[in-house]
Specification:
The protein is built from 3 helices and 37 strands. It is mainly beta. The strands form 9 sheets. Strands 30, 32, 33, 35, 36 and 37 form a 6-stranded mixed sheet that branches.
């Protein structure tokens, strides 16, 4: 028991440390709506992809060319893969992406990073000497645990300037004129409805997107007429495969990226970073509130750049790489290795509507008794455990109405034959969970005794394992339930 107590105490301390979000590893207090320069990448590049996995940021691919924009029209594609450790503010080189490219879609799912499509080369016309991109649908996945790459089924069409979002372990890849869904479990693709608007043909800028719940918010410059355009907001419902519109932004933001805060440590907002629609351009940071459907302005990014990438970790934005504008008049750019951290508006004050991953997960109920077997008694103990604090439990026997209980009980006066039982639990956040339905058979003689599994007594309350949530002051566990819970599953930590 002493060893178990020490082990649980360590877990409590670790869980408590994970809930501190108001300060970075250095201990400095973060101030909302502010920028800070962080350690630069080893390799400067534009058109790269970045994504956060378990408090690490991965910067992959891009191009290292410089000159007249776009400089990669003459090549310079790389597969460079660098990992940024947020806690130590350091970069580490990792296994490079097999297919060097830029302007591809990138998304993280179950600790793996999917890099899809992009520009992989150039064609030069022998007569006009004009250069054009060679687009690809290649789908390569990086395992962050093993530092290995694997090739998956390519996207059905080739494309570049793509963006991707993960919803329910499915990757939604979007670009101008295309929307595809990649199922990571079956390694297969499904064609979906493309966005209803396109950017002006004279603009090289492309829209960006973020996932909010089961919807994907797309924003960027879209045509409204022959010579007119605006910063539109398009909303894609992943459940109905339908598009709708939000309120257009006050100013067009070009050649940038977007990041969304979850509400965990700051208000839920979408930050649209890029270049202002003016000449010479300046850095822009427009803020969209998808719930209120309105816009605001925030502090602009310090480095004037384009074709950079943005990711969010613990409600902090990181703008990485891109092309620094060295001469706006002539349109000359050079790749940059800049890594700038943005602390969003109201950081340190969680959004009132925020629901943590722990809160949104229904209680996990495991039934120990009865088991899927035959009992020679008309009374059988109902013994179960729940993985978090709950405010109601009940059971349904043979499909009948739920019976409220406060702990383990004995099912009595069971008739001979087949029975089934399901245990339900409702947590303090209103999420209902159900156990597996257990089927068992009773073949009782005229006189029988209750079958009670050891070592749990039917008179004891059911063991409960509480998991850490943002509002919890401590973690209370019962030994038996604790061990069963951590043998059964490990929940993926929330990463923003």
């Amino acid at each position: 028991m002493r060893e178990t107590f020490i082990f649980l105490l360590i877990l409590v301390m670790l869980a408590s440390s994970c809930m501190i979000v108001a300060k970075p590893a250095s201990g400095a207090t973060l101030v909302g709506d502010s920028w800070a320069s962080k350690a630069s990448m080893h390799v400067a590049r534009g058109g790269l992809g970045v994504v956060a996995v378990n408090d690490k940021i991965y910067a992959i691919g891009g191009a290292i060319s410089s000159g007249l924009y776009p400089p990669d029209i003459l090549g310079g594609f790389v597969g460079t893969n660098e990992q940024y450790d947020i806690a130590t503010n350091t970069w580490t080189s990792k296994s490079p992406m097999p297919t060097p490219r830029d302007y591809f879609a990138i998304a993280a799912c179950q600790n793996k990073i999917y890099c899809i499509g992009g520009a992989v080369g150039n064609n030069i016309d022998k007569i006009t000497h004009f250069s054009s991109y060679i687009r690809s649908g290649v789908n390569e996945v990086y395992d962050t645990a093993s530092d290995q790459w694997e090739t998956k089924t390519p996207m059905p069409v080739s494309g570049m300037r793509l963006h991707a979002n993960v919803i329910n372990d499915k990757i939604f890849v979007m670009g101008v004129g295309l929307t595809f869904v990649y199922d990571t479990a079956t390694d297969s693709w499904i064609n979906k409805t493309a966005m209803p608007f396109s950017p002006p043909t004279s603009s090289a800028s492309s829209p960006s997107s973020v996932a909010i719940g089961n919807k994907i918010i797309v924003t960027g410059e879209f045509s409204t007429g022959i010579l007119s355009s605006e910063e539109k907001v398009l909303v894609y419902d992943t459940e109905t495969d339908r598009w709708s519109q939000g309120k257009s932004g006050p100013m067009i933001v070009r050649d940038g990226a977007v990041g969304a805060t979850s509400g965990m440590a700051a208000l839920k907002r979408i930050y649209v970073l890029g270049l202002s629609d003016e000449f010479p351009p300046t850095s822009a940071n427009q803020v969209y509130d998808s719930k209120a459907d309105n816009w605001a302005t925030a502090k602009a990014m310090p480095t004037l750049r384009m074709d950079f990438a943005v990711t969010v970790a613990n409600d902090i934005l990181y703008a990485i790489g891109g092309y620094y504008i060295s001469d706006a008049i002539l349109g000359r750019v050079v790749p940059t290795s800049a890594n700038e951290q943005y602390t969003p508006i109201g950081y340190g004050s969680p959004d009132p509507s925020y629901v943590s991953p722990v809160e949104s997960i229904p209680p996990d109920t495991v039934v120990f008794s009865p088991a899927n077997q035959t009992y020679n008694a008309s009374s059988v103990s109902l013994v179960f455990t729940v993985d978090k604090q709950v405010n109601w439990t009940g059971y349904s026997l043979d499909g009948k109405e739920n019976v409220t209980i406060s702990g383990n009980i004995t099912l009595t006066a069971l008739s001979n034959g087949l029975h089934n039982v399901t245990v339900y639990a409702n947590d303090t956040f209103g999420s209902m969970g159900a156990s597996e339905t257990i089927s068992f058979t009773v073949t009782a003689p005229e006189s029988s005794e209750t079958i009670t599994p050891e070592p749990t007594s039917s008179s004891e309350p059911f063991p409960t394992v509480q998991v850490a949530v943002a509002s919890a002051a401590s973690v209370a566990v019962a030994g038996a339930g604790f061990l069963v819970y951590f043998r059964k599953r490990k929940r993926q930590a929330f990463t923003g």
